[in-house]
Amino acid sequence: MKKTMISLAIVSAMAAQSALANTDNLTTAGLPQVNLNNQLSSTESHLAPAHYESMDFSAKDYAYINLSAGYGENSLITDIDDGLQALGVSSDRSHLAYSAAAGFIHNLNADFGLGGEAAYNQLDELKAQGYDLNNRSIDLAMVAMFHASKSWDIFFKGGASYQYAKLKHESTGWSDTNNSWVPMAGFGVGYNLTQNIAFNLTVNHYFGKDDLVNSQREINSDATGKVTSYLAGVRFKF
Fold first, then answer.
1. How many Cβ atoms from other residues are within 10 Å of residue 128's Cβ?
2. pLDDT for 48 beyond 60
3. How many CA atoms lie less than 13 Å away from 197 in the CB half-sphere?
4. pTM for the complete prediction?
5. What is the DSSP string of 20-84?
6. Could you tell me if 120 and 135 are in contact, meaning their C-beta atoms sit under 8 angstroms apart?
7. Cα distance between residue 121 and residue 137, in whole Å
8. What is the chain's percent helix, strand, coil content, to nearest 5?
9. What is the pLDDT of residue 148?
């Protein structure tokens, strides 16, 4: 009887061991393995914004085209307009300013970039008694770009501007032009809407002469006026 009990105990132990082995085989062979670390990483990546990686705009160099419009004021045109008003001559003053610029930014690190820009600008205009006085410019400037965050930039620029103020009689076609190279400086702030599109606000100032007549009562042909423009624009990056 005792031998029979021992035999049953041995058989039961062997059966239990065999069942455990079968269970392990079923787990490893028939069921997928779950890696909690991988699951957590996958969950975190799904929870993160889909555009997060593309929001770091400061990492790459880029070329750009910037189109903007706003308000411009030329001190020389203002003086002429004030004189016409004092004489009772009606005039049509347009402060419309617009600009088309192309440039390149080389990011030295995640916080700062340097580049250059060329721009064509309409700055101010006055019409009176059949005459049209128009101020335009071509700018060549260096640009310093500070990346305040992934979305916001602050920029400064300085260089030279070829200013020309053209007076034309609309009916006869007669015209005369004052022109000169003058220093210019500007600053602004930009908001990166996407990786390739940004909005910006810019203030530019041009340090031209506004003395139209010199001490010998002669016309200064290089008098183009001091000019300030206030522009809102959009930048397309490539």
1. 16
2. no
3. 3
4. 0.74
5. HHHHHHHHHHHS----HHHHHHHHHHHHS-TTTGGG-GGGS-EEEEEEEEEEEEEHHHHHHHHHH
6. no
7. 5
8. 25, 55, 25
9. 95
